[in-house]
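Box 3.1 — From sequence to structure: Multidrug efflux SMR transporter
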Amino acid sequence: MAWIYLSIAIIFEIGFALGTNATNGFTRLWPSVFTLVSAAGGIFFLSLALRTLDVGVGYTVWTGIGSIGTVLLGALIFKERITPAKLGSFAAIIGGVVLLRLAAGV
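Predicted structure (token representation):
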């Protein structure tokens, strides 16, 4: 169940990051509300996942996969470029997440 909670937390984390871009410095109401709700949801579900997972594993996976999702959706939504350096970084993050999951034994 911890990995399901962590997956939900990652979705909220991606929503938080993308929403922050849309708030225009928290001057736009609905993007700001979305961003704050996403931040709270991400932290809530992360806290549920951390009941079982080590904090080092859970937090690293949350931020790592959340970063990848944010970059990919940022490219789709905001037309940001995905460069070879970003692709290499994705590979490193995914490799690290796989190793952390193996090390956690769950």
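Summary of the box: The first helix runs from residue 2 to 22.
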